[in-house]
Amino acid sequence: MGANKSKFAYNEEVFQLFAIAAMGTAFRQVVITGLTQRQKIKNKDPSSPEDIEKFGFSKKDLNLNSLGVQRCHRIHRNEIESALPFLTIATLYSLTSQDNTVAKVHFGVFTVARSLYVIAYYNEIQPLRSVSFMVGFATMISMGFQVAHFNLWDRVLKLFK
After folding, report:
1. Would the pLDDT of 53 be above 90?
2. Is 43 exposed, middle or buried (CB count within 10 Å of its CB: 0-12, 13-18, 19+)?
3. What is the helix (H) or strand (E) element at residue 129, kind and residue range?
4. What is the dihedral of CA 113, 115, 121, 126, to 10 degrees?
5. Contacts of 93 (CB under 8 A, 6+ apart)
């Protein structure tokens, strides 16, 4: 692995694990969208004025900016904020000749942690929400360090010599 370490490599199994984790990240977004719509209807909080009649609401019954809808929007925003760094780091991670078992642990832990985070946030469960957030965050940091350790620091330092 020494001479080959500085080259990016495609490992089909690691990439398949990444694809599953990426799909989990996208699927959570879809689920959150559905939960948001459910909260909007339940709380009579339509997205726009034309939806008032569509869902059979009367203007006097509207509950604009309900806490349930706001919670779903925060969950969605937080998922987007974690999805972009994860997809970037995990893509590079999957191209840096990582061990299959270690990759499986990273991708699995991140996917489970973020899924638990969404469930805990939606159902107002603490400290599970905070713990699952930190586990997912730590997993991304771990992958990031491993990508950086993959001779990338040497390449960066050469730019400044």
Report:
1. no
2. middle
3. helix 128-149
4. -40
5. 18, 103, 106, 143, 146, 147
Under a CB-based contact definition with an 8 Å cutoff, are residues 78 and 2 in contact?
A: no
The 8-class DSSP code of residue 99 comes to: -
- What is the Cα–Cα distance from 130 to 125, expressed in whole angstroms? 9
Residue 70, both tokens: 């706001």
Could you report the per-residue pLDDT of 96-127, keeping only the tens digit for each?
867 889 889 999 999 999 999 999 999 999 99
First to last CA, the chain: 26
CA dihedral 30, 36, 38, 40 (to 10 degrees): -150
114 neighbors 139 (Cβ within 8 angstroms): no
